[in-house]
Amino acid sequence: MIRIHVDYQYNGFIWNADDWNELRCHHRIVGNLVGTRSSAAKNAKVLALPCQLLPEEVTLLVKLNICKLVKMKQEPWSDLKEKYDSYKEEIMKEQDVAFKKGKEKKIYKMIDNIVKNKEASAKNGENIDRNQILQEELAKLEPLSADHILVQRFLEDPWQENEELDSRLWTYPVSRRDKLKYSIFKDLWSRKYFITNGTKFGGDYLVYCGDPSKFHAQFIVICKDQKDTFQASELAMYSRIGTNVKKTVVIASCDTAGQVIYQSLSWADLVT
Question: Is the pTM of this model over 0.85?
Answer without folding.
Answer: no
